[in-house]
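It would be a great kindness if you could assist me with a short task in structural biology. Thank you for your consideration; the sequence and its tokens are set out here.
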Amino acid sequence: MSANEDQEMELEALRSIYEGDESFRELSPVSFQYRIGENGDPKAFLIEISWTETYPQTPPILSMNAFFNNTISSAVKQSILAKLQEAVEANLGTAMTYTLFEYAKDNKEQFMENHNPVNSATSISNSISIETPNTAPSSKKKDKKEQLSKAQKRKLADKTDHKGELPRGWNWVDVVKLSKTGSKDDE
């Protein structure tokens, strides 16, 4: 059989095996993802397998670069890929996508034994919230002086002396008015 016939047969088998399985995802007829572990499990990870033109005679391309794997350290990812690569070499020449997914499921605990979740989402949001007040455009608007109309400027000039200061006691009238009204309410 040719490589294309092998691929077609394996594709058909994968579709029938993983039909209804939420962990399996067919990205294209030659590229597949499988989530090892349950949603919300801190030790869950995603494996992506892409077939080459001459697969299964040549090894498929294995990847763990999915966003889902951001909490996994690169050392753990490399360790998982190295163990999967050993399984690829043992199964070279045969349909191995199902075998690799099942191998990963069976050895999940061993693969993730050195895994300490890296909380990259929290550190990113913290750095954003720290930088936000410094770069906020609204703070520049607050520093901007209020624009006055000519009438407002004239009124302000009439109230102030030649230095631009208000005369002593300019607001006392309001205080006196308030104290008189306050005393009437008390009686």
Observations:
- The domain at 1-110 is CATH 3.10.110.10 (Ubiquitin Conjugating Enzyme).
- Confidence is low (pLDDT under 50) at residues 120-140.
- Residues 74-90 form the longest helix (17 residues).
- DSSP finds eight helices and four strands in the chain.
